[in-house]
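In this section we walk through a basic example: taking a raw amino acid sequence and producing a predicted 3D structure, encoded as discrete structure tokens. The instruction is simple. Fold the sequence below.
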Amino acid sequence: MRILITGASGLLGLNLALETTRRHTVFGTSNAHALRTDAFTVIPTDLLAPGAVESLLERTHPDWVIHCAALANLEACEADPLLAQQLNTDLPRTLANTVARSGARLVHVSTDAVFDGMRGDYTEEDPPTPACVYSRTKLGGELAVAEADPTAIIARVVFFGWSLNGKRSLAEFFFNNLSQGKQVMGFTDVFFCPLLANDLAELFVRMLEKKLSGLYHVVSPESLSKYEFGMRLARHFNLNGSLIIPTSVTRSGLKATRSPNLTLRSDKLARALGGVIPSVSTGLDKLYTLYQQGYPQQLQHMGIH
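The resulting token sequence is shown next.
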């Protein structure tokens, strides 16, 4: 298959590209963060430029498109709501329309943050309750894609892993600080169901192979607090977990609203794929194995500084 991945320099996009290129022909777009790799074809693209999406599909002729590009920084979205709207809502609409006309299949990557986290244990049938600019514009993207391309997969995700600059994921935040003997906050009242980005790649491919469509929660069946996640990572990497200070998110000083309980149910996906979704522990095991293999350094060498 020919796979086009947008946002291939991001945490999810880069790991997706590297995982899928073993069995498929992969094209990946990059914009703000340039990439240097022979593993897949990198196409520098400003996806917001007029005609950029159409010319990209004409150039790559993909069978599958996985749309990872987004403005995902919550504070950046609050500071520039118009850019958040363009990247998180308008771009997915344009892409879905173009992909639908081409006959390719689309996976649109959304977020667990479309919920306000007041309740938790959300299913795909629960009405979204976005609480900030990021989540409102990402929900807008979901609705735009569903309308433009009913065959598309809309995947709500939350993930961790190794990234291009080594500073993109919660796992890297804990690893970097604990490795340097620095104290960090760990939120005891923010819950989530993260998957390793590399595991997400495998799940997306299986979903496309099975020709699924519609909305799915592509998250771990296991939920835990950000504090517990940090403690587990510390144990996996034999780091000092006592450096993680249990803290309430209300004392963090963060501007954008954080949703406290983003536990999502992944039963629908497990039934559709006929198997178990990887757990957080499985992901942390693999994260450590990748570390031992020098994978973080390999990714960082792909960055052009």
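Looking at the output, two observations stand out. The chain has a mean pLDDT of 95. The first strand starts at residue 2 and ends at 6. In the next section we compare this with other chains.
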